[in-house]
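YM 10:42: DUF523 and DUF1722 domain-containing protein sequence, as discussed on the call
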Amino acid sequence: MHYAIPTVVVSECLGFSACRYNGDIIHNSFVSRLGEFARLVPVCPEVAIGLGVPRETVRLVKRGEERRLVQSSTNRDWTREMNEFATSFFGQVGEVDGFILKGRSPTCGIKDVRVYDDEESGMVVEKGVGLFAEHVFRRFPNAAIEEEGRLTNAAIREHFLTKLFSLALFREVKAEGSMKALVQFHSEHKYLFMAYSQKWLKQLGRLVANRERLLVEQVLEAYEQGLHALFARAPQRRSHVNVCQHLMGYFKKGMSEKEKQYVLELLAQYRAQQLPLSSVTSVLKSWAIREENDYLLQQRYFAPYPPALLDVRDSGKGRETAV
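YM 10:58: structure's back
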């Protein structure tokens, strides 16, 4: 199966160089594996604006209604430099499919970044987004965006990779600019999209049917907007159960009662968070192979991203909800 090569901007301290404020480097196995299948663009915004390594820490402080990036030891304000760098960087980087940023960093954190008062008391007045990350959300609101800590959670990692590689593949479809390519893309993603949203699956299907005879450029633009809406949230377990039950319907004549019961038991264990989804889909895919069902075998639902990136282990440190 063909997979597009996504472009992912990554915090440089996550395995690329020792650019942390204390001179450390964070070796991240997930980022390392992803690098075999994606184009990674490392960036350290703090080093880029001249803060150096090692460096006195910077933090976000509240001054009136504004949040400023301040180096506490010198009380120097680096907000202007960071905004200028981010504007320049994103003006040159081109199309980006995803971001993996350093969690809780005052520049790169995507949530829960501490914002202090403007005194030296160290009081946290609110939590928010890092200054560089603000530009990320502003310029690429529909990209796959995560921080490295949350990606230790299996469900968040699954959603991130699925969205990342799906968006990259659609970029290729959009570049080809043909209805034939769009029809093939939609057909391959039918059950994956069903797991995310039956509502948006139907709406995207209507766009592909193109009964209004729109220009292909108009269809692709509308389809892309719908795709972003579909991927806005990770799918629920019950949605995956529903999809697997649909897939079982293809084999109702060939499955014995005991085989059917076995799959239903696997689904029950998956619903109870006792098994990963792959424990069920691998069985269903084996049936598709046995029945030589080419339509099902082309479904991205079975492998929405390169299988070598699959890792069902979960450290338990990640959070349950995805951005």
